[in-house]
Amino acid sequence: MARLDPLPKDAAPELADEFAFFERTLGFVPNSLLTMARRPALTRGLIALSKGVYDPSGEVDLGLKRLIGHVASMAAGCMYCRAHTATSAMRHGIEGDKLAAIHEYRTSPLFSEAERIALDFALAAASQPNDVTDAQMDHLRTHWSEGQIVEMLGVIGLFGFFNRWNDSLATALEAEPQETAEATLSATGWSVGKHGGGH
């Protein structure tokens, strides 16, 4: 059960444009943002960061960015964020079978070597304590430019916030991400857990 209830959308009229953006792109306003709406400046700042992280003019594929967020959320153990990144990944071209194999990305033929290296980076950077090494950075540079590495770390950093926010508050999961996660992530250890009852 959520530890803070999401506010109704109209409780923060100053965020109407931002919420309309999510309704257009996701089909709903995430409960994480509706909970955060108690502080509109914080909500706006996080949305601005999200738009920068997922800038369509970036060099890293938007679907892969969602997988990076997913693996970072696996490291953190946040089921809410795993469900959201699964839904977003599929909306950005990641096939269900690839998503279902995310827990075995190191060996699955569905992942390229460059993707494996990026996902290893996500896992190491999202671990506590941080597990990124100089050797890993050198390996990352064999497939990715410094600008691309910055984009990937932006995703990992964003989910550092989202994982802590949603896991601490047991944010209630919305219907679509829950359905996506149940359909694609059942073999990966995903369960709705404390995020149930949100729709």
CATH-level-4 superfamily name of the largest domain: AhpD-like
CATH topology of the largest domain: AhpD-like
Tell me the quaternary state.
single chain
**Low-confidence region ranges:** none
Identify the CATH class of the largest domain.
Answer: Mainly Alpha
Backbone shape: globular
**How many DSSP H or I helices?**
10
Secondary structure blueprint with pairings:
Elements: H1 16-25, H2 31-36, H3 40-53, H4 62-76, H5 79-91, H6 96-100, H7 113-126, H8 134-141, H9 146-169, H10 175-184
Helix pairs in contact: 3-9, 4-5, 4-7, 4-9, 5-10, 7-8, 7-9
Describe the structure.
- There is one protein chain.
- The protein has 199 residues and is mainly α.
- The protein folds into 2 domains: 9-53, no CATH class; 58-193, AhpD-like (Up-down Bundle).
- It is 60% helix and 0% strand.
- It has helices at residues 16-25, 31-36, 40-53, 62-76, 79-91, 96-100, 113-126, 134-141, 146-169, 175-184.
- The longest helix has 24 residues, at 146-169.
- The radius of gyration is 16 Å and the shape is globular.
Short description:
With 199 residues, the chain is mainly α.
List keywords for this structure.
199 residues, 2 domains, 10 helices, 60% helix, AhpD-like, mainly alpha
